[in-house]
């Protein structure tokens, strides 16, 4: 039997034979880290403006329902590169690494005649493979005067602000590229990842402004699963001094502390985004100046969503909307109609198949995602998905104490199972975190404030969803807890 690794040359050959005979698009994938959709003005943000990122939406398609399959940095990047769920790629947690010998979308595009590059945050432990050029941050990297790992293995420190440097290096590679080949560039920003250090340029942005609070900032998680109460990512209470850069005023506690800390945290978070927005604009301007904007598909995305004080939290990991949902903006002249909004369900699992399909290359049969190209062309297939499967594996890990969970989301309902099992080969049950279910009717309760799992009105719906969840796990070759 052929392994996936042995099968790669055959699939790559198929990709070559399936190339489109006409000019293929350049592909630029810009990804930020922890940038929530509700902090992008194209998505209706009430707290900031992102005019450069909005240019992609204005010239293309905004996906209103794009979700991640595992809301944590390293696994999300693994999903995007491989087109596989975490349990198949082996990248389940922050501690896992990508196998350099395994196939990935960059390797397939190389074989299809693309020049490939990745610049910025990598966060997959081993060095990048499948890229003709790479320059990446070690681990999370630093905001100021960061070190980058060069292709020769050398670690070199650069003076400047990380987001601007990633912009500089990306533009430099674009200017020096082989103009006889199409290109695939992954431009990955560290920002706005915690600890939210803004550039000197924006250190005083919002200084005299009070940022609107989310309507769930003071949520105490009553009526929710115990997993919500066990978590350790409350604004104020769980922020560190490196997050806030200062001690709170004496005597602040409870809601008063949360209110104060929210303003401090969210302003630095938004200041970091401002630099990302600037550098998206620099790339868009270059495409215009170089005359290749019409030949280039450009995508803006984040590796997952983020709690912006929603439910009183920062960070992600849960299956709640704010971190399950990720921004996805795509401009592809000749395909995306300017200013359009797509409401179909898209996943980060779909990105690799989309890149290959756009390049005229065959999509390997073992990839679990589906190309978004029909949606970009404004044509939703009749059999398009109406439900998605999510799984977060890092049980109680990362300092945030979030219980491992999986679930199903449809356009209206969400069912989550917190299975309370520790990681590791033994799979030992953690007796302090008993299994629990949560169910939300997103039409009636879009903020997910009421766990309706025990409501008899939904008994039939929940039973049906459990059956569909089991089928999804079988379809995606995952094993239930």
Question: Can you describe what's shown?
Answer:
The chain is α/β, with parallel strands linked by helices and 481 residues long. The chain has two domains: 4-200 and 262-378, 3-Layer(aba) Sandwich (Alkaline Phosphatase, subunit A); 389-475, Arylsulfatase, C-terminal domain, CATH 3.30.1120. It contains 13 helices and 16 strands. The strands form four sheets. An eight-stranded mixed β-sheet has the order 5-4-8-1-9-10-2-11, with helices on both faces. β14 and β15 (413-418) form a beta hairpin. α1 (4-17) packs across α5, α2 crosses α9 and α6 (162-176) packs parallel to α9. The model is unreliable at 1-21 (pLDDT under 50).
Helix and strand layout, with pairings?
Blueprint: H1 4-17, E1 26-32, H2 51-59, E2 61-63, E3 66-67, H3 73-82, H4 86-89, H5 105-111, E4 115-121, E5 133-137, E6 147-149, E7 155-157, H6 162-176, E8 183-188, H7 226-230, H8 241-244, H9 254-290, E9 296-302, H10 321-324, E10 328-331, E11 340-342, E12 346-347, H11 351-358, H12 373-376, E13 387-392, E14 405-410, E15 413-418, E16 436-441, H13 459-475
Helix pairs in contact: 1-5, 2-9, 6-9
Structure, briefly:
This protein has 13 helices and 16 strands. The chain is α/β, with parallel strands linked by helices and 481 residues long. It folds into two domains: 4-200 and 262-378, Alkaline Phosphatase, subunit A (3-Layer(aba) Sandwich); 389-475, Arylsulfatase, C-terminal domain, CATH 3.30.1120.
């Amino acid at each position: 039997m052929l392994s996936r690794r042995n099968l790669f040359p055959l699939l790559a050959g198929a990709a070559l034979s399936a190339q489109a005979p006409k000019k293929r698009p350049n592909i630029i994938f810009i990804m930020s880290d922890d940038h929530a959709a509700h902090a992008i003005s194209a998505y209706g943000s009430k707290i900031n403006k992102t005019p450069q990122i909005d240019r992609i939406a204005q010239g293309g398609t905004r996906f209103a329902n794009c979700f991640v399959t595992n809301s944590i940095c390293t696994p999300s990047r693994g999903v995007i590169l491989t087109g596989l769920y975490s349990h198949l790629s082996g990248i389940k947690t922050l501690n896992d690494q990508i196998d350099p010998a395994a196939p990935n979308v960059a390797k397939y595009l190389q074989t299809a005649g693309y020049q490939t590059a990745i610049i910025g945050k990598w966060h997959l432990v081993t060095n990048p493979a499948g890229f003709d050029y790479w320059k990446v941050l070690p681990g999370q990297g630093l905001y100021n005067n960061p070190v980058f790992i060069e292709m020769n293995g050398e670690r070199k420190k650069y003076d400047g602000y990380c987001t601007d440097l990633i912009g500089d290096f990306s533009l430099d590679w674009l200017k020096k590229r082989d103009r006889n080949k199409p290109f695939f560039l992954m431009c990955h920003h560290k920002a706005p990842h915690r600890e939210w250090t803004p550039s000197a340029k924006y250190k005083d942005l919002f200084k005299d402004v009070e940022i609107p609070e989310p309507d769930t900032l003071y949520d105490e998680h009553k009526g929710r699963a115990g997993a919500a109460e066990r978590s350790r990512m409350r604004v104020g209470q769980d922020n560190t001094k490196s997050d806030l850069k200062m001690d709170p005023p004496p005597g602040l506690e409870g809601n008063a502390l949360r209110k104060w800390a929210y303003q401090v945290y969210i302003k630095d978070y938004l200041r970091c985004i401002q630099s990302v927005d600037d550098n998206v604009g620099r790339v868009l301007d270059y495409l215009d100046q170089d005359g290749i904007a019409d030949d280039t598909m450009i995508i803006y995305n984040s590796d997952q969503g983020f709690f912006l004080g929603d439910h009183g939290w920062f960070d992600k990991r849960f299956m709640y909307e704010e971190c399950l949902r990720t921004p996805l903006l795509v401009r592809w002249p000749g395909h995306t109609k300017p200013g359009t909004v797509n409401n179909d369900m898209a996943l980060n699992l779909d990105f690799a198949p989309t890149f290959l399909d756009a390049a005229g290359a065959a999509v390997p049969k073992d990839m679990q995602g589906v190309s978004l190209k029909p949606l970009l062309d404004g044509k939703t297939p009749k059999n398009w998905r109406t439900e998605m499967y999510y799984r977060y594996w890092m049980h109680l890990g990362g300092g945030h104490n979030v219980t491992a969970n999986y679930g199903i989301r449809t356009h209206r309902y969400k069912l989550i199972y917190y299975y309370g099992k520790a990681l590791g080969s033994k799979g030992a049950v953690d007796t302090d975190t008993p299994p629990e279910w949560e169910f939300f009717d997103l039409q009636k309760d879009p903020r997910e404030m009421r766990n309706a799992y025990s409501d008899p009105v939904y008994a039939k719906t929940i039973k049906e969803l459990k059956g569909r969840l089991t089928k999804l796990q079988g379809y995606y070759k995952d094993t239930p807890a």
